[in-house]
Amino acid sequence: MKPIARAEGQLCVFIMKTPGSVLLLLGLGLFAGAAESEDIDLLELKYLRSQVQDFKSRLQASEKKTRDLENEIKNLQENRGGKKVVFSVSLEKDALYEHTGPFKIGKTLVYKQVFINIGDAFNSITGFFTAPVRGVYDFSFSVLGYGGSTRVGAHLRRNGQNLVMAYATLDRGDINASNGVSVLLEEGDKVDVYLPAEHRILDNYHHHSTFRGHLLFQM
């Protein structure tokens, strides 16, 4: 039995001239080919899995961007066609020279002159503004007084809690002070201008002591 050498790539195989040995080597070749094929299939499967995962990630990111855009469009539409709230008032209507205060106990100022009250959120009888919707509102107010021993000033309050104060002092002569704030209000929150005890302000037909506010946007 004479061996025959054959080259398979870089591998040199000796084949014995017997039927059994030839079948054995053929079987080994088939086994090696099958193993190599399985390795290729495994690599292809891993690649496909990575592609699917990448596609899922990009799809999720795209869906998030779509949701964000839809929410932004919804907010813009709500604000454009949403609740309109604005008011502007003055302490006196046509008085020549009218003082308010001083009082032993502080009180909410009641404004007699209503310039505008869109949304009817300001109550000219009680002096309170009631937020009709949850949102960010902007308020400002001013007070006029006369210098001397009596202090001139007032608080802007939310639900009875002081937010900001307008205050001024002067030995004599007319003095004016103002302040304002933007604030988040819940539906039903109340805002007023409060004259503290032992303070005095004045107004006339020129409307120096005023209170105004409006809804910037809903939340």
UniProtKB/TrEMBL annotation:
Compartments (UniProt record): Cytoplasm; Secreted
Residue ranges of coiled coil: 45-79
Domain C1q span(s) in chain numbering: 80-219
Entry GO MF terms: metal ion binding
Keywords from the named record: Coiled coil, Cytoplasm, Metal-binding, Phosphoprotein, Secreted, Signal
Keyword Glycoprotein: no
Cofactor: Mg(2+)
SUPFAM superfamilies registered for this protein in UniProt: TNF-like
UniProt superkingdom: Eukaryota
GO CC field: cytoplasm; extracellular region
Keyword hit for Manganese: no
UniProt cross-references to PANTHER family, sorted A to Z: CEREBELLIN 13-RELATED, CEREBELLIN-RELATED
Record protein name field: C1q domain-containing protein
Organism: Coilia grayii
Organism taxonomic ancestry: Eukaryota, Metazoa, Chordata, Craniata, Vertebrata
